[in-house]
Amino acid sequence: MTPPRSWPLARVLAHRCGGLLAPENTLAGLAAAAEAGCGGVEFDVMLSGSGSPVLIHDETLERTTDGHGHVALTRDENLRALDAGTWFDARFAGERVPTLEEAAARCISLGLSVNLEIKPAAGQDEETARVVACRADHLWAGAAVAPLLSSFSELALEVAAQLAPHLPRGLLVDRVPPDWLQRCRRVGAAALHADARYLDRPTVIEAREAGLWVATYTVNDPARAQTLFDWGVDCVITDWPGVVRPAVTQHRSSARYPAGSGAQSC
């Protein structure tokens, strides 16, 4: 039932860099995750209008910056001038939309493992995957732990597999489709990443018996996290890493991850 390799990232990942501790997808979020004792993060990467990989979740700027319009139509110089922090709290005024280069350097310096979601704007699946996979491969070259690339876009995962085959990949789904295993096989995914609201124990067991890791999002209840770990889930992604992390501590006595197994703690 245990996959042939240990899960390579922290077992609790802060959602969108720092969860609800800081503005999402920012360097401040990475610092907050590290300060909270979280050993890893998840964040989203799409392309700017200049073709540069940047950390942002939405295709439009309004929700998380003081800008307007589409990320894919906004050039780097204009994107860098935006405030990506005040919407969350005045303490973060002046926080910028970070580049993937900045985020990678900060994660490596802070010792944070990374689940990098390739998040293409509409119609940019292939180009986004090409740029992000190649850049990630370069930025984390020689790092202790390589990033895991995940995406809802199967085309993006196929492109990433061709360009950076040694970087592990995860297929993102919300409700787990009936053909999830075939899809994972088709894109060469090492992990199934599913919405915790719809994930069930039989699916976790089947995935692990098939040699896949299982990650799940967005888990903010420690009791639910404990249940998921008991089912065999490898990783939970959370908005509240400091609250959910104790579920891992409680779970460490489990025979699935005996001492010295190599699985990272959070």
Q: Please name the fourth-level CATH homologous superfamily.
A: Phosphatidylinositol (PI) phosphodiesterase
CATH class: Alpha Beta
- Mean pLDDT across the residues is 93
User: What CATH architecture would you give?
Assistant: Alpha-Beta Barrel
Q: Please indicate the count of domains.
A: 1
How far is the first residue's CA from the last residue's CA? 22 Å
Note the topology.
Blueprint: E1 12-14, H1 27-35, E2 40-47, E3 53-55, H2 76-79, H3 100-110, E4 113-118, H4 125-139, E5 148-151, H5 154-163, E6 169-173, H6 180-187, E7 191-195, H7 201-209, E8 213-217, H8 222-231, E9 235-238, H9 241-244, H10 246-251
Parallel strand pairs: 1-9, 2-4, 4-5, 5-6, 6-7, 7-8, 8-9
Antiparallel strand pairs: 2-3
Helix pairs in contact: 1-3, 3-4, 4-5
